[in-house]
Amino acid sequence: MRTTTISERERLDQTSETLARLEREFTGESLFTERGPGRAVVMARGLSRTYGKGDATVHALRDVDIDITEGRLTAIMGPSGSGKSTLMHILAGLDQPTGGRVSIDGVEITRLKEKKLTQLRRDKIGFIFQSFNLLATLTADENIVLPLSLARRRADESWRRAVIEAVGLQDRLTHRPAELSGGQQQRVAVARALITRPAVLFADEPTGNLDSRTGGEVLDLLRRSVDEFGQTVIMVTHDANAASIADRVVFLKDGRIELDEDRMTRDAIYDTIKNLEVPR
Ligand SMILES: Nc1ncnc2c1ncn2[C@@H]1O[C@H](COP(=O)(O)OP(=O)(O)O)[C@@H](O)[C@H]1O
Ligand SMILES: [Mg+2]
Question: Which of these, 51, 120, 164, 199, has the minimum number of CB atoms within 10 Å of its CB?
Answer without folding.
Answer: 51
